[in-house]
Fold this protein.
Amino acid sequence: MAVASSFIVLALLPPQRLGDFWRGRIRLGTVPDLRLPVSLLSFTMLAALIVAGFNGSRDPLSNPLSLTVWTLLWVGLTLLQGLFGNLWAWLNPWYGPYRLATRLLGLSANGAPFHLPDRVSYWPAFILFVAFAWFELIYPAPDDPARLAMAAGIYWLLSLVAMLAFGFDRWSRQGEFLSAFFAMIARFGIVEAKQDGSRLRLRLCWPGAKLVSAEPLPPSGALFLLLALASVSFDGFSKTFLWLGLNGVNPLELPGRSALMAINSLGLVAVFGILAGIGLMAILAGERLVRSNQPLCHSAGLMVWSIVPIALAYHFSHYLTSLLVNGQYALVALSDPFALGWNLFGTAHMPIEAGIVMGAGAAWMLWNLQALAIVGGHVLAVLVAHLLAWRLHPVATSASLSQMPLTLLMIGYTVFGLWLLSTATAG
């Protein structure tokens, strides 16, 4: 009802005034560009975490590498990116080493020895994201510290080599999947940063305002963004009694990841294929309703930006309980990264309050926060889609009409998200 109502209200508002209002900015001033020292510090921390992965505790809930990668980075930083903007541009552990390596090797920091063909587009990032999603969701032991340290170390090294070969900006934008993902998610953030010499000019904007001015993504970029949403959705769906029952698995006797690798691999591909197919059909149906002459790739590449609020909402809802509990374990582990009895930050002996997510009161609060995020994310997605559609169809009635199939899809996905929150799950 909330998503449908928002569509009706937006259809009645003048798109020009709504667009002008949403594109408003407030200047915040300038800050020094400290990306180089911050990136070098980030790389140093990553190196220490990889060492801790090999030599620290074997318990994933005591090892800082597992907790940092899966809780602080993949969950926490993604949400901070969506709220504030591109923090990853500063925390990127490749930028500083890349600048140092180009100086040592005598290479140009703004050039590249090899040219990455335009037809490659986002396909390297897409393929690497598929591998990452499979490792996170399907591989039997993604949080095993030693295996994760090996994967992280090899990935960092190969990415640095690719950046030296094809250029830092080009590979970060279309090859290194974390940078590509974080850059897309950051477009929803409320802080905008522009380079001004050695400083950054900061401006405050509305949530999603940067999405409205985004350029259409190529097919590989659109699929990359859809994969981000599909992977989180499948992670929730794969634990439901429905999915396990369909595959002949008793959810009360869950056999473990190894026994489910094949069916979950197929399930991840199926969820991605269904989501991409339905999304494309919704956009195509909308364009047919208004008899548009726009190429489908152009329309789909622009309208796919409207799923960023939905992806963020699902990320928050799906990982909320993990963030609240494992975030506490991370604070403890980071104070004693090598299990040597250290207490670097005074949190090594902090008690873990797992009860924060247990009990009827906590369940009621968490479920309503998750439901509010899902509904709110879809409402904001309708707003972004409306303004993007107005770029394709300057006539207000055509813009609204073209959005009807996509809005119906968003309503259905809202119901699906709320069902995932309320249905029985295992594991």
About this structure: The mean pLDDT is 91. The radius of gyration is 22 Å.
